[in-house]
Amino acid sequence: MANETKTEKKAEKELKKLQEQKAKKEKKAAKALEAREKRKASIEKSNERQAAKEKKRRNMTKGQKARRILLPLCAVLLALAIALCGFFGVFDRAVAAEKTADGDRISVAEYEYYNRMYFNYYYQMSQQYDQYYGQYYGAGAGKMMTGYDYSKTPDAQEFVPNKEAGLTIDKKYGDHPTWADYFEQESLKEANSSTMLYKKALEEGYELTKAEQKELDEFIESLQKNADDDSYSLDAYLRTNYGRGMSPSLLKKIYTKQTIVNRYKEDKQKELAKSITDEEIEEEFNKNAKDYTTVDLRNFTFNNSISADDKASKDDIKKANADLKKKAQAFLEKVNLSNFTQMAYDATDDKEQKNLMKEDASYSSMDDTNYTAIHDYVSKEAADWAFNADRKSGDKQLFEVKDKNGIATYHVYCMENVMKRDNQYPVNVRQILFMVTDNAASDATETETGHSDAEAKKLADDTLAKWKKGKATDESFAALATKLTEDTGSKESGGLYENVTKDSNYVEPFLNWCFADGRKKGDSGIIKTDYGYHIMYLSGKSKDPNWKNTVREALASRKFDKYIESTIKADGTKVSEHWVKVVGKRMKKAAETVITNAGLNAASGGLSDAQVISGGDQ
To answer: For residue 533, what is the enclosing H or E element?
Structure first.
């Protein structure tokens, strides 16, 4: 019985297992059938949609068929056009980087033009100073004299404000602004002021003169020639040199704006100068006499035997300062105007300096020295002493100046002539120079043209005679000078030198002719100097002494600044920070290219200007 029961249970268990397996198979088969039905339904729907599309396609008009092809193509072309517009600077000319208080738009391209203008100005000035003065002051002379290091990009060097030099920056740029920040600030100011003053000038009837239009045309022609020489199109040349958005039409617009604004400023300043009365001049002079007078001093400097290179201890420096001060005080006690030259000679240890003093009796003289010169050369204390109203001839004083290491220098001053006005009457003179090759002696008038003495004299005689036979006016002389003079320093201004006095830094025959007895406006003549033959013409003579003109110019400048501030409304400008940053990044790349290829240019013997900027590739 037990065995039968076990057998029955086992049979039931197997039967149940078979039933479960059958149920699973049936369920799986049902799911597979359901999936096939869904796929079949999906295929049928897809076929229906395709059939509907085919029917719709067969029933489409020609216009509908064309749009079906063109719309995707237009999308591709639009993307391509946007890319090309960006490359050729269309957006830069259309989008505003800045808006004036009056709502006038200043494009990104124009803003970048001003940014490049400031970069190029400081880069070239620093580089030129370094090349010229490096032989005297060593490497870094350019940075020392301008504050700007042309070997670094603007964003990689800190900008140090200098109020006396007019170099200031807004607090928004933080405690450690860079030169890139300064260029940004000045570019925004320049763009804004130029735009608003241009609008003001147009309202007052200003437009380009024929001469200015001719100069603009010649400028564009010169750019075209440069582009041709470098195998560039003019547009590509302008983009390389002036920024991505620059074009001939935009450059002409900016040039026109700058030319008219500059003339408008000059006219406005002259207008304001004429409005200043003698009473205003006297009041200003009496209030700030030190700014408009000079003094004559005798000066001797005691330099320390210790320098920063000696790495002396504080005690050593203190002892050296004390010994030097004792020596300087002994000099001060004995010196006076009558024995100053001899005592300075005796106190000099340097043989080379001693020889210079022997050759030049005025070596220790500081004639016609202004307040600023003493302030910068010695100290504010020394300048205040020299320009004190109670100062008298024969007064003397010792001044101590210490460097950052505490090493002292001592200056002994002895007053010769107290504050005095410059009572000279300056003149304006025009000249036409014909250089004599054999004895031309100055880089300032260097030219490829040269003549023998006889040729230069004949040219001068014939030109003066021709001028006299004509209208013989200031305008006709200026036109001849612009055309014929070989003096590059005055060619563009019609041979004009303004505000010439007897103390001006010109050769003696030049000054002697200008201030000969009885010399009057309209006089002409020929002189010979080491440079060659000069045709001279006295263009004008001041009605007032030099000091009075200086005060008038200062007052006019203040009035002009106030007028500009009230006109340009700087507080009302709106700036696009996004586009300013975009231009900033471009300027960094442009500066890197200029710096890199300046070295490449020097090493390779000279690439074109465009190649230096662009990297040498065309």
So the answer is: strand 532-541
* Confidence band for 503, pLDDT divided at 50, 70 and 90: confident
How large is the greatest C-alpha to C-alpha distance in the chain, in angstroms?
163
DSSP string, 217-269: HHHHHHHHHHHHHTT--HHHHHHHHH-TT--HHHHHHHHHHHHHHHHHHHHHH
DSSP state string for 334-351: H--TTTHHHHHHHH---H
How far is it, in rounded angstroms, from Cα 72 to Cα 78?
10
| pLDDT, position 214 | 92
3-state secondary structure of 169: coil
**pTM listed for this prediction:** 0.67
Long-range pairs for 390-399: beta carbons < 8 A, 24 or more residues apart: 391/295, 391/415, 391/418, 391/419, 392/418, 393/337, 393/417, 393/418, 394/336, 394/337, 396/332, 396/335, 396/336, 397/332, 398/328, 398/329, 398/332
Query: Would you say residue 607 has pLDDT above 60?
Result: no
Q: Which of 32-41, 46-55, 444-453, 602-611 comes out lowest in average pLDDT? A: 602-611
Using CA atoms, how far apart are residues 171 and 176, in angstroms rounded to an integer? 10
Higher pLDDT, 13 or 460: 460
Q: Is 294 helix (H, G, I), strand (E, B) or coil?
A: strand
Other Cβ atoms less than 10 A from the Cβ of 592: the count is 15
Average pLDDT over the chain, rounded to an integer: 84
Contact 245, 116 (CB under 8 A): no
Task: Please name the amino acid found at residue 140.
Answer: G
Query: If you compute the radius of gyration of the chain from its CA atoms, what whole number of angstroms results?
Result: 40
Strand partners of residue 298: 365, 414
Residue 136 pLDDT = 73
Q: Higher pLDDT residue, 389 or 17?
A: 389
288: amino acid identity, one letter: N
> How is residue 570 written in tokens?
């700087």
Query: What is the distance between the alpha carbons of residues 479 and 472, in angstroms, rounded to a whole number?
Result: 11
pLDDT of amino acid 232? 87
**C-alpha dist (Å) from residue 395 to 75, 297, 380, 384:** 87, 10, 18, 14
Total residues belonging to the chain: 618
Q: How far is C-alpha 34 from the geometric centre of its chain's CA atoms?
A: 82
Per-residue pLDDT tens digits for 268-297: 999 999 999 999 999 999 999 999 999 999
Q: What ranges in 275-397 are assigned the alpha helix state H? A: 278-287, 314-334, 340-347, 351-359, 371-377, 380-386
For the record, the structure tokens of 427 come out as 């003149």
- pLDDT for 479 beyond 90: yes
- CB-CB contact of 401 with 379 (8 Å): yes
C-alpha distances out from residue 432 to 149, 465, 507, 508, Å:
39, 13, 15, 17
Beta carbons within 10 angstroms of residue 32's beta carbon: 10
CA distances, 415 to each of 248, 252, 294, 298, 525 (Å): 60, 56, 12, 6, 42
17: its two tokens: 């297992």
Q: What CA–CA distance (Å, rounded) separates 468 from 471? A: 7
| Nearest one of 371, 374, 363, 378 to 409, comparing CA atoms | 378
pLDDT over 70 (residue 16): no
Write out the two tokens for 277.
């009365």
Q: Are 116 and 243 in contact (CB under 8 A)?
A: yes
Q: What is the pLDDT of residues 514-550, one digit of tens each?
A: 999 999 999 999 999 999 999 999 999 999 999 999 9
